[in-house]
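Following up on my earlier message about aspartic acid. Here are the inputs again, as you asked, copied directly from the submission form:
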Amino acid sequence: MAVKVLKFGGSSLADAEHFKKVANIIKSDPSRRYVVVSAPGKRTPDDQKVTDMLYKCYELTRDGEEIDSVFVCIIRRYEKIIKDLGISLSLEKEFQRIKMAILHHAGRDYIASRGEYLNAIVLAAYLGFDFIDAEKGIFFNEDGSFDSEKTNSVLSSILAKHEYAVIPGFYGSMPNGTIKTFSRGGSDFTGSVVARAASADLYENWTDVSGVLMVDPRIVRDSKVIDVITYKELRELSYMGASVLHEDAIFPVRIAGIPINIRNTNRPEDKGTMIVKDSEVGPGGDIITGIAGKKGFSIIVLEKDMMNSEIGFGKKVLEVLMNNKISFEHLPSAIDAMSVIVDTEDIKNKKLVIAEEITRAVHPDYISIDDGIALVAVVGRNMVNGIGTAYRVFKAAADSGVNIRMIDQGSSEMNIIIGIKEEDYETVVRGIYSEFTK
Ligand code: ASP
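Thanks, got it. Here's what our run produced:
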C-alpha cells in the first residue's frame, strides 16, 4: 500500500470544526498514515496563535511577571477543542507539568514546542492513531544544525512500529536531550523529514489556500494557482519572497524524490499544486510558472573606462564587501560598468566606508550607492525554450511606465530578475502577470 505523510498547518487545526475536516480527509484514504501537526493557529484575523502565547509566557517569566492570564487562554483553547470534539481526554497533568516548567525557567524552545506537542496528543486521541513524540525521532547536532542522517535512521525504525501515527511538528532534541525548535513555520520541515523517513510516496501539505499561487494575492487578487512546479522553481520563488512552505522544507523530500502536494483543508476537492523533480514534469505548459519579489535592496554602481580589460576588478570590489561581511545578491555587469545588488539592511551605516574602500581598491570613474530597490523574479522552467520572454517582461515594465534599473538572467535560463524602484514594485508585478496570463 502507498504511504502518504500529511502535515496540517495551524489554521487547519485552529478549532474543533477544523479538526473534523482534518479527520475526514485522513480517514478518506487508508494510505494517509503519518500526520504531522502545527499548534492551533488563528481562528479569526485578530485571534492569537498558541505558539505566540507560549512565547509570551516565556517572556513574562523571564521578566519576573505573572503568566496566569495568558496560560489560562492556552488551556481554554485545548479544552474547548476537546469538548467540542466530544472525546474523553484530560490534559490536566500535561498543563500542570508545562506550567511548572515555565515557572522554573524552562528553555524558550521547549516552551514554544508545547503547542505542537499538545495538539498532536489531541488529534491522535480523536483519530485513534498512535502518538509519536518528535523528541524521540528528530535530532539536532551539538552546533544546533539539523542531524539529518541520525534522524532518518532512528525515525524510520520508529515509524516502522506504528501503522498510523500523529507526530508534533516544529521541534526535536539536542544531543543532551533538551528540546530545540526549527525556525518559525518549521512544522513544514518536520513533515518533509517524516516523509523521507517513511519512504513516503507523497507528502501532502494541507493549508488554507488551494495551492501555490502564481503571484502574491495581496498584489493580484484571484491569482491563478500553479498546477505543477519543480523543486528548483519553488526554491527560486521562495527565496524571492513567495511564502508557501518553510524555505528548508523541500530539501529532505527532494533527496528522496518524494513529491509534495499543497492542498486546502477547507476545499479538499481542489487538486492543489504538485511540487516535483525536473524529470517528472511533462512537456508543454505555461512559459512562466510564477512571479515573486522583495523590496529592501541597494544598488552599488561602478563605472570605469576599460574596466573590462582590468584583471581582478570584480574580485577587488567583492573583497571589500567580504571584508565588511556583506553578501551580494546579484552582480550584473556591462563592458565598462558593474553593479552589485545588496541587502539594504546589510550596508546600513557602512555606506561611506564601503564607497571609500571600493574607491581605494579600484579607482572607479564613478560610484554611487542607491537604496530603495525592489527585485522581481519571473520564474519558469519553460523559459529556456521560449523566444521573446525577456522582451515580454521588459515590454510589460515599459507599458506600466516603469524604468528597469537592473536585469539579470540566471544561467539556467529559469529566471529573469529585474531591479526597479520600490514604489514601482506592485505596478510592475501586476503588469508582468497580466502580460503572461492574457
Ligand atoms: N507553530 C509554529 C509557528 O507558529 C510552527 C509551525 O506552525 O510550523 O511558527
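One observation from looking it over: The first strand starts at residue 4 and ends at 8. Hope that helps, and feel free to reply on this thread.
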